[in-house]
Design goal:
Double-stranded beta-helix, TauD-like_sf, binds fe (ii) ion, TauD/TfdA-like, AlphaKG_dependent_hydroxylases, TauD/TfdA-like domain-containing protein
Length: 326
């Protein structure tokens, strides 16, 4: 595989790290300043589709910088050029469609940290790739930090080999409680607990909601206050995907859901996971995290099978748009 391409120039960004020999993110810029525009980028991608996709897998994250993308429409066309199928978002994050495949990223309050996750990790069919576009960079903070998932497995195995293999063998069980929007008439965007179950499942009919959750591989328990607890499991702790050097990805949302008021994570048979294991995992994830400051017009591609990602708090305004791809 040739790791250079004359239609892109390899650049640098603050916060880059080299992990197992690969620079993350790989920064690609126009080969000359006059090619710093949407049309040139579109042409460069159409010409180098396969190469570009290889780079996403090899480096896990690719940042396009200096192409001055200006709109959701242009972003949509750039992603379309790859020919990857769209995958519809399913999950608790409040999102709004902006243009065709382009949606807002999580509209939860900017003051809150969105914890690291593989996109739609608990859903049977999750996206292989994510593309993000920075329309309005925040004045401060608001990075989209990401973490090479295999490093978490490696380090957890170094520190807690027995616990890791035990959880892996048993599998994980998660619960997530969503309220009913009949109870909460205020904006469902007002809390990081996300949407009501009616919004999340796209129906206010309980039987239909049950059918839809079953199809996604979940069970539900209705609560006296009209809310619902969704139960998922058993789910994996780690996963190995084709073409990714046999790396064992930390493909779970244990830290994000463990011991919260509206969610929990335990072993699939109900055995509790020791708190110190989860706390240490949280520290390791933060230590392995990589981030850069968004610039207007940036486009970032993630290999969703290889990276966890989150969102740091920021002041407004901040607008980052997203496309999820099969
Ligand atoms: Fe996400």
């Amino acid at each position: 595989m040739e790791y250079s391409c004359k239609d892109f120039k390899v650049g640098k960004c603050e916060g880059q790290k080299v992990v197992d020999g690969e620079t993350m993110p790989l920064v690609l810029q126009p080969p000359e300043p006059e090619k710093g525009n949407f049309e040139s980028l579109l042409m460069a991608i159409k010409k180098n589709k396969d190469w570009f996709e290889e780079m996403i897998i090899k480096n896990s994250a690719v940042l396009l910088r200096g192409f001055n993308l200006g709109s959701a429409e242009e972003f949509n066309e750039i992603v379309e050029a790859f020919g990857w199928d769209d995958i519809r978002y399913v999950g608790p994050a409040p999102r709004t469609q902006v243009y065709k495949r382009v949606w807002t990223a999580n509209e939860g309050p900017l003051s809150e940290f969105i914890y690291y996750h593989h996109e739609m990790v608990l859903i049977k069919e999750f996206p292989k790739k994510l593309a993000l576009f920075c329309e309005t960079p925040p004045p401060e903070g608001g990075q989209t930090p990401f973490v090479p998932s295999f490093r978490i497995t490696e380090r957890m195995l170094e520190e807690f080999p027995e616990a890791v293999e035990k959880i892996e063998a048993k599998g994980l069980k998660y619960t997530f409680t969503a309220q009913s929007n009949k109870k909460h008439t205020s904006s469902s965007f007002s809390s990081m607990r996300g949407r009501s179950w009616e919004d999340a499942f796209g129906t206010s009919d309980r039987a239909e909601a049950e059918r839809r959750t079953k199809a996604l591989g979940m069970d539900v328990e209705w609560l006296p206050d009209g809310g619902v607890t969704t139960i998922l499991g058993p789910r994996c702790l780690t996963k190995v995907f084709d073409g990714r050097k046999g790396r064992r990805m930390w493909f779970n949302t244990l830290v994000g859901m463990y011991g919260k008021s509206h969610s929990s994570a335990m072993m699939a048979d109900g055995e509790e996971i020791p708190e110190n294991v989860v706390k240490r995992c949280e520290e390791i994830i933060e230590e392995e995290s990589i981030q850069f400051d968004w610039e207007k017009g940036d486009v970032l591609f993630f290999d969703n099978l290889a990276l966890l990602h989150g969102r740091r708090p920021s002041l407004p305004p901040r607008r980052v748009l997203v496309v999820t791809c099969k």
